[in-house]
Amino acid sequence: MSLTVTELPHKEQALFRSALKLYESHQYKKGLKISDQILKKFPTHGETLAVKGMFLAHVDRREEGYETIKRGLEINPKSSISWHVYGLVCRKDLKYSEAIKCYEEALKGDSENIHILREQGQLYMHVRQFSKAVEVRQKLVKLNPSFPPFWMGLAAAHHMNGRHDLALRVIGAHEQTATGDATFGRTQVSELLLYKSWLVELTGDLQQALESLKEIRPRITDITAWKEQKARLLLKLGRREAAALAYQDLIERNPESDEYTAGYLACNGLDIARAEDADSVLEVIEGLQQQFPSSNRLRFLPLTFCTGDSFAKAAESLAKFALRKGIPSLFASVRALYADEAKGAALGRLMEGLATQLRDTQRFSDSTEDEPQSALMWCNLYLVQHHDYYGDYERALSLVDETIRASADTVELYIIKAKILKHAGDIRGARDTMDFGRQKDLQDRYINTKTVKYMLRNDEVEEAEKTFVLFIRDDEPNKVHEIVVIQATWYMCERGHAYRRLGDIGRALKQFHQAIDVFTTYHHDQFDFHAYSVRKAALRTYIDILEWANTVFTHPLFGNVARAAIECYIELHDRKQAGSPVKAIPSPTDTKPLTRNGAAQHGQHHLSAGIDEAKAASVDTDPSGASFVDADDHLAPALALVERLEAAVSDQAETHILAFEVHLRMRKYFLVLKALNALKAIDANHPALVPMAVRLGKALDTDASFAAPMKAALKSQLAKSFGDASIESSVASHPESLAFALAGAKGLLSLGDADAARKLLRQAPSEAYGSTRTLAGLLEAGQLLTKSGASTEERDEFAVGAKKVLPLATCF
Where is this region: Disordered (predicted)? Predict the structure, then answer.
């Protein structure tokens, strides 16, 4: 039978406890030596084996560490220490569900262990099991009611569990047991009081919240937060005059805040979203503009709700101010207004008129003196972007070239010209123009970044890397690796797409996963705040962090890389099924043994393993992404990404299209139908809907292994939702839409009808598709045409047609 810690001899007990202290101080190698020292005398001591495994896992011997921990648990399966250790290692490896199970096992042997309970509570908060977090933290409060962070943690758990009344009760109980402000510093006391007042508001007792807010004013350090809550409460209580004064005070602090302006308007019974309030809202905002003439936001705000002459007047005021100040971002600031065709046209007419006035007299019509020489340049720059927005690339290029001849050293002109060339399909010209502009100001980080992005879009991976590292600090020995360290997700994303276009799926997946890992890190970084925030009583900020962390994977860039990675996995699977598996493309250095100096050249660096413990340089053992390409199962990682997208962005059509593709290949037909129905709920007229339904029906017909009763049930549901719709009828019913033609061609290719798909794709440049013939759509059509086995003559014919649509394009 295994010895417990207390049954070890006194000397070994001391060694065991010193090993645990070494773990806390991150001295893993020393701790490993002590563990081995104990195990020489007591090789079957389960708890020491578990601790040794923990140290092994922290010195990059993870698999051996897990095996050692499990061996220790086999010897002593009831050891609380061993299960706790196992939980710590699982938590370190982000296996939160497994860690929770380990903590639950640990508590069976030591149900009142405060350390285990505290860590378990943090894990429950992290995985959003708030009801369980409440239970655990209630135990902690009972075990040690004099420790304030336990009270704070319990309040936060109740709050996130939707029980604001119980959270308020917990804070009140803590105040009765606390020994005054000495428990926390002045800032912490202020935060706690503001949080308590917020809880009172959330419970619906607005008058009490306002009264408590007045009482705590002398003890508050975050005055702005106090004023915000006061204004909000006064407005909710209907005390509009007092609320208006409160919001006026806030606007004086920050006239750029939309929240303050909206609150001030609400005090006057106005809503910026109500069309009937437009004249009154404008009058109020004009009054604020007179009080705060430096506010850019107040100057812009009328454009969002005014129409007709009022809009023109507000737009003219904003435009003249921006042109006199030389604000390059004028178009970017009003671009959202172009969604309203009337406003877009009005802005174009306004800027054309101002440009004419400046060219003819160097003054605006109401000016008493000449405007700055640069005003006409900025006006032309706006018009260039205006023409680009409407697809008039030749006119935009003509005007920007004219402006460059007059102001050849203005970097912004080259940035906009490059953007126009990109939109027109001249990727190489866009890259060259952006790089030429970069040469005008080599200290400008922004244009350096834009140049790198354009180089990658031109598939110049190595040149982009050389340009990127120009802004990595000189004392950094591994500049390439630093790109990963600084979490440049845009670079990883663009580089991944470049590799994908070059046919290097292994490296593409490597880049996509690096970007995905960054977002995963963002999400996991909240873990440290579960302890820190309650210790500092920063509960308002803690709640904000938890709510923000729930939105991390909704970021557009995460969706971009996740979808691209899924598509890569699908391609790998399909190629493998077709008997022509993709092979990783090795680099010249892949086959050479790496020295320590070589590791540095490959973008690796030296990491600290612990206090005063040097760690050998890690080596990228898979620079070509071969592990992704050569994996036995490509659908499993694709499915994991699909599930993450479904959890984060289930309101996006692309999520369910990819879910359909993955589940169909896995023959999970009920999930395929679920994805179809989800897509239909989002957009019942989506171009991909009918082709996907036809493919599902075909898959059911050809899969003899699928149970007949379930097949019949699925086909019945399919017929009920889509009838006897066909791909041909779907395309024919939308003869003016290139999107429907592309979706139809994809469906036909998947069904093996390459001839029919090719017929559709060859017509992509046809005038019948009108304005739907976008650059992205034509590029996709060209790629699908190649995939369909089109002849050289057919591809050349397509390229000629595409060039007629986009004469400046060089990518066909």
Answer: 580-607
